[in-house]
Design goal:
The protein has about 550 residues and is an alpha+beta fold. Among the domains are: about 50-140, Phage tail protein beta-alpha-beta fold; about 150-205, 2-Layer Sandwich (Ribosomal Protein S8, Chain: A, domain 1); about 240-245 and about 280-315, no CATH class; about 325-360 and about 370-495, no CATH class. It contains 8 helices and 26 strands. It has helices at about 1-25, 60-75, 110-120, 160-165, 190-205, 235, 290-295, 520-525; strands at about 50-60, 75-80, 100-110, 125, 135-140, 150-155, 175-180, 185-190, 210-225, 225-230, 240-245, 250-255, 260-265, 270-275, 280-285, 300, 325-330, 330-335, 340-345, 350-360, 370-390, 395-415, 415-430, 430-435, 440-455, 470-490. Strands 9, 10, 17, 18, 19, 25 and 26 form a 7-stranded antiparallel β-sheet that branches. Strands 20, 21, 22, 23 and 24 form a 5-stranded antiparallel β-sheet that branches. The chain has a 3-stranded mixed β-sheet with strand order 2-5-4. Helix 2 runs antiparallel to helix 3 (about 110-120) and helix 4 crosses helix 5 (about 190-205).
Length: about 550
């Protein structure tokens, strides 16, 4: 018994010694916990679709990288139980192993990085539009790539114009594109790779159509030499009265019974009155040159006294004949300078013309009368221009200038009926050239030459040699016209269309009406202000701006 007690005492003493040594010893530092791999810092929560400057993971698990990328892309996702990484084991006692990854990517979107990571490990992201929760599952190598639907908004190009171009990027037969012309949008249903190719093609083609400024100058130089010789007697005798004869106008005889009494003075101063049984009186009235000359002017020859001019009068105011030898040479310049802006590869037309009617007659048949149809044609100056811009800022031009007018009217007898038709003078040229922007194309050589010879004379007198020159008139004229066309194409740049510094249609800050009286009652009621009251406090400036904001309530200043 004493031995057991001694043994217990020894054990207690040893235990106390150990406890005291443990208390006296310095505390030991616990071992540091095992370092867990963590993702490197990235740009927090970037906007969906935005480029991330740097995406870096250093020895992190696959599921952690997927979680971080999904959060950056703003995606809600769930792992399919079929995914062999990071899922509970079949016996439920652990987690299936998964690989650790180390990546460093620059200038990618979070969606692109997530898609690339899933592709490496034979995974895919399947969207569910109903729940808006995407599912990450195993990709079946034999399954077709899923189709993605996207709507692309066009800025400049027409939706229907790009359908054929976008279809060239499709490889999968299931892919398709639909154009919405009303909203200028395109609905593209294709695989992810085809979507990327279609998007790059649309960015390349959806550019604003370039424009070309067309400046045209049409100049017509006319030379009209004319020669006028002789006296134009047709103009000299115009509004004149010319008579040739004895001037006898009318005569009448009157017989009186008894006759007209006559008184005879005898020598010595005695007078004797004799009344015959009957007497006759003849009255002759003539048109003298003096009476005609005073009213109409002209030349009158009276042969009553034997071819001796009784009255010869030539009114100076009525003479319009001119004896002249005139040679004139006049240059006339008619300039037309139209300007317009047209789209690249679009035809433009400049027309300064007059619509001339053309009557087309239709012969009638038995029981059906004939009729006429009116058609119109444009005569004047017409210019057709089609520009096309090349890659080196040169302009390909297709130019068709046309100048037309009515030359004369032709009369012909066809089938026993007289028909008239207009003859047109048309000068037209068509050419295609390549010219640098800002340079001028000159076209000429469109000549029109016409000669007129007008000859008139006094019958018989105009044929007398030498003297006949005074009784004939000859007018020769020549109209020679040369059309010159100057066309300057200039490529319009984006900087040429700058908004004005101030515009009436742009919204500007509204100023408050500054008034020395309380006008809020006028805004709150339909009762107009009584401006006829002289006791009313006047406005500082009696103006009204309908765009002004409602003034604040102000008290009347004493």
């Amino acid at each position: 018994m004493k031995a057991k007690l001694v043994s217990a005492t020894i054990v207690c003493l040893l235990a106390c010694c150990l406890v005291s040594r443990a208390q006296d010893a310095p505390p030991t530092t616990p071992p540091p916990p095992a370092e867990t791999p963590a993702a490197a810092t990235t740009t927090p929560a970037p906007a969906p679709g935005a480029l991330v400057p740097l995406i870096s993971f250093q020895d992190v698990t696959l599921t952690s990288a997927i979680e971080n990328l999904a959060r950056m892309a703003g995606l809600n996702y769930i792992l399919d139980p079929k995914v062999p990484y990071g899922q509970p084991s079949a016996d439920g006692k652990g987690i299936t192993p998964q690989p650790n990854i180390t990546i460093r990517w620059e200038n990618l979107t979070a969606e692109q990085a997530l898609s690339a990571l899933l592709t490496v490990y034979s995974l895919q992201l399947v969207d569910d539009p109903k729940t808006r929760v995407s599912r990450i599952t195993v990709k079946d190598p034999a399954a077709a790539e899923p189709l993605v639907t996207r709507i692309v908004q066009l800025k400049y190009a027409g939706a229907s114009n790009l359908v054929t171009a976008v279809q060239t990027t499709f490889i999968d037969k299931r892919s398709k594109v639909i154009a919405d012309v009303r909203t200028s949008q395109m609905v593209i249903v294709a695989t992810e790779k085809e979507q990327t190719a279609a998007e790059e093609l649309i960015i390349t083609l959806d550019k604003p159509t370039r424009q070309v400024l067309i400046e045209a100058r049409l100049m017509e130089i006319s030379r009209n030499p004319s020669t006028v010789k002789g006296i134009d007697w047709s103009q000299t005798l115009q509004a004149q009265k010319f008579t040739f004869g004895n001037g006898l106008g009318s005569a009448s005889t009157v017989t009186s019974i008894p006759g007209t009494p006559t008184t005879t003075t005898l020598p010595g101063g005695r007078t004797v009155t004799t009344t015959p049984g009957s007497s006759e009186a003849t009255t002759i009235s003539t048109e003298s040159g003096s009476s005609l000359g005073s009213s109409l002017g002209g030349l009158s020859v009276n042969t009553l006294t034997g071819l001796t001019p009784a009255i010869g009068f030539l009114s100076a105011d009525g003479v319009s004949a001119v004896l002249s030898f005139l040679n004139a040479d006049a240059d006339t310049q008619v300039i037309s300078t139209p300007r317009l802006v047209t789209l690249d590869n679009e035809a433009a037309t400049i027309s300064v013309a007059r619509a001339v009617p053309i009557f087309k007659n239709t012969a009638g048949t038995q029981g059906s009368p004939g009729g006429s149809e009116v058609q119109y044609t444009n005569l004047g100056t017409i210019l057709h221009v089609t520009p096309r811009i090349s890659a080196n800022d040169q302009v390909w031009l297709r130019v068709i200038p046309e100048v037309s007018s009515i030359f004369r009217t032709v009369t012909k007898t066809v089938g026993g009926s007289i028909s008239q038709a207009d003859e047109y003078d048309i000068r037209k040229i068509e050419t295609q050239v390549i010219i640098p922007s800002g340079n001028t194309l000159v076209m000429g050589g469109l000549l029109a030459d016409s000669t007129k010879n007008i000859y008139s004379k006094v019958p018989v007198l105009g044929d007398i040699p030498g003297l006949g020159f005074a009784f004939r008139h000859e007018n020769k004229s020549r109209d020679k016209r040369n059309l010159l066309i100057f066309i300057t194409p200039t490529i319009v740049k984006d900087t040429d269309f700058q908004p004005a510094a101030a515009s009436h249609f742009l919204k500007s800050p509204q100023t408050e009406i500054n008034s020395g009286i309380d006008t809020s009652s006028s805004w709150d009621s339909a009762k107009p202000r009584d401006w006829s009251n002289p006791d009313a406090t006047p406005y500082d400036e009696a103006t009204f701006d309908e765009n002004a904001v409602r003034p604040k309530n102000k008290s009347v200043k004493p």
